[in-house]
Amino acid sequence: MPVMDRIDRIAFVAACRTAFDLASRPEVADAWTSESSCEGMTVGGLAQHLLAQPERVVQLLSAAPEGDPIPAIEHYRRAAWVQSDPEAEVNIEIRTSADDAATAGHDAVLAHAREVLDDLPDVLSAHRSPDVVRVPWQGWTLTSDDFLLTRSLELVVHSDDLASSVGLRTPPMPERVVGPVLALLTNLAVERHGQAALMRTLSRPQRAPRVVSAFHDGDA
What is the pTM for the complete model shown? Predict the structure, then answer.
């Protein structure tokens, strides 16, 4: 399976700014209360959830390290939202909390995100591997590099969701962010669907299963 390189921290900041620029678009503001490409979540809620990722980095990397870390792939094996149906309580809560936060409005959400982005480079420069990060809503610890990988996955996937929601082209992310994210998604998909399913999807579409999502089951 692909080796997951650590996320380059300068590239991570660039990815956060790309997501911010996307969320700043007038198309997003105009569709703020409309349903997004993520069913059951508004465009505003999705934008808020996207922009919350650098905020979580600032908050958690600024806290005292605690506990022994687990690997990034184990984080997704354990995460309730991955193991649950989209209509399970844990996933409804993610959508509802983002929608609630988005009621502050486009300008307020963007203003807060801009402040976070101003702090992000200094926070990242102060925390180097092998620092660890306690993820309080999950109840376990990751290395700071793996935590950045999980936040990068959120940035890459939800930027595509947000662009799709308002008819915009998905903005390109830095290669040193996308590469590790794609490696992680590939490893998760292989674990869920098997090597042959991924090989066929990439090289033999006539024999490929319909779905090889890293987070959802599909045709075997």
Answer: 0.92
Taking the chain (220 residues) in runs of 10, the rounded mean pLDDT of each run is 79 98 98 96 98 96 89 92 77 92 98 97 80 92 95 98 98 96 95 94 92 76
C-alpha to C-alpha distance for 95 and 49, rounded to whole angstroms: 8
172 preceded by a cis bond (ω within 30 of 0): no
CA distance 105 to 32: 8
| Token code pair at residue 95 | 């959508």
Contact predicate 80/215, CB 8 Å: no
Q: Are 13 and 124 in contact (CB under 8 A)?
A: yes
Q: Is residue 111 within a helix (H) or strand (E), and if so which, with residue range?
A: helix 106-125
What residue type is 73 in one-letter code? I
- Compute the distance between CA of residue 113 and CA of residue 48 in angstroms, rounded to an integer: 9
Q: Which residues make Cβ contacts (< 8 Å) with residue 214, sequence separation at least 6?
A: 76, 184, 185, 186, 188, 189, 192
State the Cα–Cα distance between residues 19 and 35, nearest whole angstrom.
Answer: 19
Q: Are 208 and 28 in contact (CB under 8 A)?
A: no
Structure tokens given for 41: 């979540």
